[in-house]
Amino acid sequence: MTSSVALPTRHLWRTQDLRESSTWYRQATLELVDELQQIAAWAGGNLDAITPKALQNFATPSIDELVTWIRWEIGPQGFGVAKLHGLPTDAHFLAAISLVLGSSVGTILENYGRIYDVYDRGGCYKNQAIPVSQTRHPTGFHTDSARRETVPDVITLTCVRDGIGGNTHLVSAAKIYHRLVAERPEFIELLHESYVRAVVTPGTEPTPEALIANQFPIFELGPGGDGLTFRYMRYWIEQGQTLAGAPIDGQTTAALDWLDTTLSDPTHYHEQHLNPGDIVWIANRDIAHARSLYENRPQKTRLLYRMWLRN
CA 194, CA 179: separation in Å to the nearest integer? Predict the structure, then answer.
């Protein structure tokens, strides 16, 4: 791999681009909320009733238009991010409509169940084999899933209750790749190599054999430079390589240090606070995200619903 590699163009943006655009977010309309409430009321307490087949029985022009917009924004034409705000904040309603919209946008991956509660369970991912989503700790920039066989195309986050802090940061992996090629070509090959990840995602038993098999590149390009896939969470790489008996060396450490520093450059990432009633869809293959440290509000535990989708 040399510096003459084709450069990816999908979802290529700077934070200024998102700040100056209003195409990727919208306010929920009364018509949309009415359609969603009808389906939530029909499902009652049975979220399992909400399936793509069942949704065919409803006339949902506002939902259909919203889904078309989401697919456009997270597709190659958009920024890879879509955000809806202004929804009612009832927890059951938000769980039901997360399933309605998720199953309409793509196919739900059920490694953590159809819908996964993101809240602080009081643990620490650095001394327990748990996802960082189960803690209130800040995360570095990453993409979801440390399991080789599971690559969500889209993640959705629905805010039920927010916290003090816990802001979401988004960055274009394509933009970072452009800087990699321009500034540090000596790191390109290192960041295309496969690295072992610690086994933490449900679906694989954490055996030594599974650990060794759970390796894949950080950056991977499709034909002609299109279709960039960025799979990264540094902690699980360092843990996986150490558990496999092959700790990362000094040159790889330098490459990962450069990557973390560049991802965290404020000119690249967009920061936002998810408020109750907000939903965001993120193209997980080439939009990395991070979360700042948060504290729960008095008597209110921060709660987000997360879904993984394949589209």
Answer: 21
Please, which pLDDT band fits residue 89 given cuts at 50, 70 and 90?
very high
155: nearest Cα among 18, 285, 25: 285
Nearest by Cα to 295 from 119, 165, 130, 205: 165
List the Cα angle 291/293/296 in 5-degree steps: 110
Quick one: pLDDT at residue 172? 98
Contact indicator for 247, 241 with CB cutoff of 8 Å: yes
Q: Which of 90, 219, 200, 220 is nearest to 147 (CA)?
A: 200
Average pLDDT over residues 224-239: 89
CA–CA gap between residue 149 and residue 215 (Å, rounded): 10
In the chain, the domains with their CATH numbers are 15-174+272-310 (3.60.130.10), 179-263 (no CATH)
Where would I find the H helices in the chain? 15-20, 30-43, 52-55, 61-74, 91-105, 173-183, 188-192, 208-213, 234-243, 250-263
pTM: 0.94
Higher pLDDT pick, 95 / 3: 95
CA 62 distance to own-chain centroid:
25
Q: CB neighbours (10 Å) of residue 169?
A: 22
Give the residue-averaged pLDDT of 36-62: 96
By mean pLDDT, which of 50-64, 67-81, 115-129, 245-259 is the weakest? 115-129
Indicate the pLDDT class of residue 225, thresholds 50, 70 and 90.
Answer: low
